[in-house]
Design goal:
Elements: H1 2-36, E1 43-47, H2 50-60, E2 64-68, H3 83-90, E3 94-97, H4 103-111, E4 117-119, H5 160-164, H6 186-203, H7 208-232, E5 240-243, H8 249-254, E6 258-261, H9 273-286, E7 290-293, H10 300-309, E8 312-315, H11 331-346
Parallel strand pairs: 1-2, 1-3, 3-4, 5-6, 5-7, 7-8
Helix pairs in contact: 2-6, 6-7, 7-11
């Protein structure tokens, strides 16, 4: 009888242990799910800076809660994460970033234990640009540098101007020397949007249909924006523009323009006498009228250059953040302001 009781006790204990382990697993899973979602069930999304935030908000819609690591008015390239922001990363269910823009964020995301981490740089073709970025010089004046749907797969090496035209202390380029400013080409941004939509569907399949619908609506809007840029810049007096921030290589490439960045300096720095002389020659030869500066950096460089060359100044926004001084409330509005500024500066007809 004693033996029989022992034999009966063993499986009973084993079952109790298994039930206990199962409860622990369920509890752990529930804790994980709770960390990834808000109290009302929305997916917690962390975006690295504004162009990623905009995609997350437009595609995620009412089913996500988006936090951005780069607050409005903060220069994204120089961002250092606070402990609270690192905690936000690990407490999220979806991270969207663009590798090569913010080294501190790249490092933190690499260490984060979140399952769904999306690098926008992997969702489109990245490029490198020589002489500040722009179309291939073999194109005829006024000839577009792209075909419909062109993926821009060619590679060019950085020269000294392109490599140093970023912010102080950063090479301002993605891994491998590629220019990270892919969002300034609406067609590339649309490619990224499609990829983000697909990845959101995987992360939150219960709302996949809504993510798909939102993605299609955003892509349609970006496609219309691309067409407006193409038509609006098709005929102009010049194809060349000068900017203190060499962020517009993709935009220039897409629409057959020539970007002339102020070489070897950060946006706040003074241009060298040699570069001023060179830009004077370029401005005269190519009928340039305007030096563009950005919203998140000082306009001192642009004003210095404009004074020395007899040119005007205006804003060409690299859209790294939206502030009260931005010429629009979101990506599309600011891009349309950029289009209007380019049309005016280039003498578009």
């Amino acid at each position: 009888m004693t033996v029989m009781n022992v034999r009966r006790l063993i499986p009973t204990t084993a079952v109790a242990g298994a039930v206990g382990l199962g409860l622990m697993a369920v509890t752990a899973c529930s804790t994980s799910d709770a960390a990834e979602r808000t109290d009302d069930g929305r997916l917690k999304v962390v975006a690295s800076f504004y162009p990623m935030q905009y995609l997350a908000e437009r595609i995620g819609g009412a089913n996500v809660s988006v936090t951005t690591l780069t607050k409005p008015g903060v220069e994204p390239h120089d961002l250092d994460l606070k402990p609270r922001q690192t905690a936000e990363l690990n407490d999220s269910g979806f991270i969207l970033y663009l590798k090569g823009v913010q080294p501190a964020i790249d490092k933190a995301i690499g260490q984060a234990t979140v399952e769904h981490k999306v690098d926008a740089a992997e969702l489109t073709t990245m490029e490198s640009f020589g002489d500040g970025g722009g179309h291939d010089h073999s194109h005829e004046e006024g000839e577009p540098s792209h075909d419909e749907g062109d993926a821009h797969g060619h590679e060019e090496g950085h020269d000294e101007a392109g490599a140093e035209a970023g912010h102080e202390g950063h090479d301002h380029a993605a891994e491998g020397g590629a220019d990270p400013h892919i969002w300034l080409d609406p067609s590339k941004y649309a490619e990224v949007a499609k990829g983000v939509g697909s990845r959101m569907e995987e992360a939150d399949p219960d709302h996949a249909a809504e993510y798909k619908k939102n993605t299609e609506a955003l892509v349609a809007e970006l496609t219309a924006l691309d067409k407006d840029f193409e038509q609006g810049l098709k005929n102009s007096s010049t194809r060349t523009f000068i900017t203190t921030h060499s962020a517009f290589g993709y935009l220039a490439e897409r629409y057959g323009l020539e970007q002339e960045g102020i070489s070897g300096i950060a946006p706040e720095s003074e241009p060298s006498p040699a570069r001023i002389k060179e830009l004077q020659t370029i401005a005269e030869k190519d009928k340039v009228t305007t030096v563009f500066f950005e919203t998140l950096a000082s306009d001192r460089t642009a004003k210095t250059l404009a004074k020395d060359t007899g040119l005007k100044t205006d804003v060409l926004d690299p859209l790294e953040g939206i502030t009260d001084t931005s010429r629009g409330d979101d990506y599309v509005e600011v891009m349309r302001s950029n289009l209007a500024a380019l049309q005016k500066a280039l003498g578009a007809k």
